[in-house]
């Protein structure tokens, strides 16, 4: 008879928690799909397909995360969305 030993290794993993902020765009009854799509392409650097999908999600779900990243990058983008008459906030 042979005896097999099982060795469990404990690995300590340190992860740096990275906090990503998000710009959330909210639905409104004022702006057209084309206007929202054009604004998302200009402000958030979306492709036409991304902007269209986000506008549909906003319309049907009431909100959509349109951009994630560092707060320094998101603040001016969110300000531009607000200046364009869209409802958005950073969370």
From TrEMBL:
It comes from Bizionia paragorgiae. One of its GO terms (molecular function) is peptidase activity. Signal peptide: none annotated. It comes from the Bacteria. Pfam families: ClpS (PF02617). The keyword Hydrolase applies. Keywords: Hydrolase, Protease. GO terms for biological process: protein catabolic process; proteolysis. This is ATP-dependent Clp protease adaptor protein ClpS. Residues 17-84 form the Adaptor protein ClpS core domain. The keyword DNA damage does not apply.
């Amino acid at each position: 008879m042979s005896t097999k030993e099982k060795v469990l290794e404990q690995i300590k993993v340190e992860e740096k928690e990275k906090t990503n902020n998000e710009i959330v765009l909210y639905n409104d009854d004022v702006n057209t799909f084309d206007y929202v799509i054009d604004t998302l392409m200009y402000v958030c650097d979306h492709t036409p397909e991304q902007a269209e999908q986000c506008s549909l999600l906003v319309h049907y779900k009431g909100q959509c995360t349109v951009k994630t990243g560092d707060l320094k990058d998101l603040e001016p983008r969110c300000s531009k969305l607000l200046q364009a008459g869209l409802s958005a906030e950073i969370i």
